[in-house]
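Appendix B, Record 12. Input sequence as logged:
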Amino acid sequence: MQTFVYTAHRTDTNEVVKAEVQAESERAAAKLLMGQGLFPITIDDKHKESLFDKAGLGKRVSGKDRIIFTRQLSTLINAGLPLVQSLRTVHDQITNKNLQDMVGQVVAKVESGSTLSAAFGEHPQVFNTIYVSLVSAGEASGTLDVTLERIANQQEKDAAILGKIRSALIYPVIVLGVIVAVLIFMLISVLPQVGSLYKDLHKDLPFLTQALLNVSNFITHWWPLVVIALVGVGFGLRLYSRTEPGRAQLDQAKLSIPLFGRMYRKVYMARFARTLSTLLSSGIPMLEALRIVKDAISNVHVEKTINMAMGQVKGGKALSVSLEKHDTFIPLVPQMIKIGEQSGAIDSMLERVAIYFENEVDEEVKNLSTTIEPVLMVVLGVTVGGVIAAVLLPVYSLVGSGGIDNLK
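Logged structural output:
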């Protein structure tokens, strides 16, 4: 049986319905819907993934929209509204069309008797394992409103860290953009004039100038091919980064790349500590919490360490001992966890660790901006200076040899 997402027109009430149906094929799903008095408009395989989806370019729901939805739902449930009514109220206020469609399907599932966590679990691209597990724990303990508030707080912390990193990268991107723009201008506008001048004088260009002129001629005559190649390479790299080997290489680069490696390690430590703290304080057992945290870290090498720690914890070892002597974990983390284990307050100790590393990331971002500025200025100077030298040296050579006078 396959699951299909459909949009259909209800013939008796003139209403447009969006939901899911299980059937052997698309044709069978259409027959089933028509038998229920629905005229199908669209029927799509729920698990069908396009090339754009694999590359991460498909429809998305922003973290900000998800946080707003979570906080609004928490507020309404806390105010005493029934779950379905709360969901419908929030659904009507959502401005993101993709999220609104998903919440509409969640409402339909809950109305048919499903739990909220199970309904959220049908949309893993928006509601990840942490989200679903915490909601499930909140349902079991009768504290769904508190749990949703806790989820929103954690998501805001994660978004704040990522936002600071992106802000730190804006300046380097702008400078690199300027470098590329200057190079393109010099290659397609200035260098060809120097080449024409030497050609008129029947003289040979210096090696560097000739090499850059060859590049200029190629870009000028084959620029559509260059654009297609660049787009293809970018798309291909994005696809490769989502494969297992590609992700492993990218994650290793994040941990070891100069300037950024130390910052990324602290980001992972903050994410690990805050997520584990949230899960444990919600009543989720340690092993289950570690399994969820492992899937939330977004680095295969850190995940591997957590996976090894899970095996040792299952065998009776303390978490702090299991995480010791692993390069992917900063030594402070297992040390602080050990104190939490001894005091019986591991969740609160993990929260302190998360706050500490979040503050450390703030400092790293500031230091990164200070460090990377002179490095980029040197790169900009060397690049532009090299191109200018390739343009001016031939001109000075002509002036020195009297070539300009011969041209006159």
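The longest helix spans residues 144-201.
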